[in-house]
Design a protein that fits this description.
This is Proteasome assembly chaperone family protein. One of its GO terms (cellular component) is proteasome complex. It holds the Pfam family PAC2. Keywords: Proteasome. The radius of gyration is 20 Å and the shape is globular. The protein has six helices and ten strands, in the order ββαβββββαββααβαα. It starts with a strand and ends in an 11-residue tail after the last helix. It has one domain: 3-Layer(aba) Sandwich (Rossmann fold), CATH 3.40.50.10900. It is 38% helix and 22% strand. It is of the alpha/beta class.
């Protein structure tokens, strides 16, 4: 049965902003939400029970209580909700999930902000990553007021984030979507930092400390180099056959 199971009874919100964090290209949305929950000390607000969510249970550090793999966290002082997901939603189940949660968004007058990574080519290591905004309802006006660039080319958002944006479009509700250039193979904290600083801060009108994401970017880059080196060594040490062309 589709429902939002509240864990806190004393939270009162007035038109809050929600940040969506499904795993995707560069894990950008998940990195953003995980960072917000830790940085702001957000509280576990609700478990999400919807069709489309894989039937698994999640356990947390220092707790014996099982929780759903998709959860809501809250910072009531900042009127901010984070949707944290430990699992991806399959494309064929994304619409059912969107139908479930967006009904709750409407009831609670939530402004949802969705995040999607745009795969960046290896030779396009832009600094900083390009960030574009799209919206439905009043979302475009909010993006314009925040000074967010419009997309440079035609594109499409798929997966659960695409289904959520499609639902907002179909029902003429307000939603904001951020599209950020991201690494298609590795977690990309640089892209997450770009969305937080240039996209989310202007909308929620709050400063967010992103210094830890800079440290994570350096760690991930070092791990990436080590991985590539190991792969190269494995290739050099492995037996292989190569064609010999007459006119090389």
């Amino acid at each position: 049965m589709a429902r939002i199971e509240y864990q806190l009874d004393d939270v009162v919100l007035d038109s809050p902003t929600l940040i969506e964090g499904f795993p995707g290209v560069g894990l950008v949305g998940k990195i953003i939400v995980d960072h917000l929950i830790e940085q702001l000390g957000m509280e576990h607000y609700a478990n999400v029970h919807c069709e489309g969510i894989p039937r698994v249970a999640t356990y947390q550090p220092d707790s014996s209580e099982l929780v759903t793999p998709v959860r809501l966290y809250v910072d009531s002082d900042r009127e901010l909700i984070a949707l944290q997901s430990d699992v991806p939603i399959k494309p064929n189940a994304a619409t059912a999930f969107a139908d479930c949660v967006t009904g709750w968004f409407k009831t609670e007058d939530v402004l949802p902000i969705y995040v999607s990574g745009l795969p960046r080519q290896p030779d396009e290591q832009a600094e900083p990553p390009a960030l574009y905004g799209v919206g439905t309802g009043g979302g475009s006006e909010q993006l314009a007021a925040a000074g967010i660039d419009t997309p440079a080319e035609m594109g499409m958002v798929s997966g659960p984030t695409g289904a959520l944006l499609s639902h907002a479009l179909d029902n003429d509700t307000t939603a904001v979507g951020y599209i950020v250039e991201s690494d298609p193979q590795f977690p990309d904290p640089d892209a997450a930092k770009a969305v937080l600083e240039r996209g989310i801060e202007p909308i929620v009108d709050r400063d967010i400390d992103t210094s830890e994401l800079t440290d994570k970017a350096a760690e991930i880059e070092q791990a990436r180099k080590q991985l590539l080196k190991r792969m190269q060594q494995a290739t050099e040490e492995s037996s292989r056959a190569e064609p010999i062309r007459m006119y090389q």
